[in-house]
Amino acid sequence: MRYIPVAVAPLVCLCLLSSTSASRFQFSLTSRTEECFMETVNARASDNKVLFRFGILEPEIYDVVDVAVKSPSQREVMTWKSEQNNFKTAVIRESGLYHLCFRKLKGASSIITLFYSFDFISTGVRSLTLIPNVTATINKDTPTISAYMQMALTTLNSEVIRMGVMEFDLVGVSQSIIRGNTRVKLLLTVDSITDEEYVDIALAMLPDRMQHPITWKTMESYATGGFRDYVIDDAATELGSHVSFDITEIFENKLNGPAETITFSIHAQENGDAVVFGTHHVSEDYFPHIVVEDLGLELMHEVAYFKESVFTLRGDISFIKHRERMSRDAAESANSRVKWMSLITNILLVAIAFGQVVYIRSMLESSY
């Protein structure tokens, strides 16, 4: 058996941390046409983060741009309007070419020079991904009809009106896939939220095998309040973001038992109205997933945390330098205006004094 030397291990972990190396690019915008650049991302784990920073080099106060980072399916991951400098970290699930798009706004200089810095962090490696056999919405208002497109969640005055249901097949999944450093997560992606910026999604596990057809009527005892006894966890999330639930123990217990499927329901806590992606009309990366991941060495997570902290620090420093430059320019502009106003004031005072001398002299001459 071969061992990696201690001195080399951190370097190996850093190499394994991400399959995409960091990139930094400088370019110029000469027109108001949107210009896009592409970066490859391999989202191989549930904890994938994109780190993005941009800025205008030596901007005038009126130099601003619109910036958007778009996923391979052209969904906006990050957006900024009328900005000169900014940065952000976002959790992503979709693999492929990400588009980094820049548009110069009206009134900006004819040529502006920008830079962007793009990096990607992924810790852990998937050993298994399960996609649900079925995802559906059951609705109290239509108790005999189900929608199999997406999972709609509606709760009004703490009463669940619509909830989502998903069933995963466990046939052929071996118990040996669960090891000491393995975690099992259920991943969901929010498609839309009504009226609010955030929605609190609660996850529950059906105690029995799901009955078909999947309707409010066939699940009435569970849907009308029985689900509250089986709630596992809840998480607040925003539009377009991803939410994950750790279901390691539940998944392991299911594998140790005779069950061939595992079924979950999701609903909005308190008052909420949202839609979670199902298994139709969207990229497979946004489907509900159960992922079994090997977390890897603790050192890898420490390196990932350090890498993200350095990125955030550099972004903060860049923002401070940008604000300092704007403050310095404002101070220099104010000093310049003060200088010219002082000069004009002195000239006016000299002119007034000269005028007074001439006037008094003329008065004295006329009196004689």
UniProtKB/TrEMBL annotation:
<comment type="similarity">
    <text>Belongs to the EMP24/GP25L family.</text>
</comment>
<feature type="domain" description="GOLD">
    <location>
        <begin position="24"/>
        <end position="365"/>
    </location>
</feature>
<dbReference type="InterPro" id="IPR015720">
    <property type="entry name" value="Emp24-like"/>
</dbReference>
<keyword id="KW-0732">Signal</keyword>
<dbReference type="GO" id="GO:0016020">
    <property type="term" value="C:membrane"/>
</dbReference>
<protein>
    <recommendedName>
        <fullName>GOLD domain-containing protein</fullName>
    </recommendedName>
</protein>
<feature type="transmembrane region" description="Helical">
    <location>
        <begin position="340"/>
        <end position="360"/>
    </location>
</feature>
<keyword id="KW-0472">Membrane</keyword>
<keyword id="KW-0812">Transmembrane</keyword>
<keyword id="KW-1133">Transmembrane helix</keyword>
<feature type="signal peptide">
    <location>
        <begin position="1"/>
        <end position="22"/>
    </location>
</feature>
<dbReference type="InterPro" id="IPR009038">
    <property type="entry name" value="GOLD_dom"/>
</dbReference>
<dbReference type="Pfam" id="PF01105">
    <property type="entry name" value="EMP24_GP25L"/>
</dbReference>
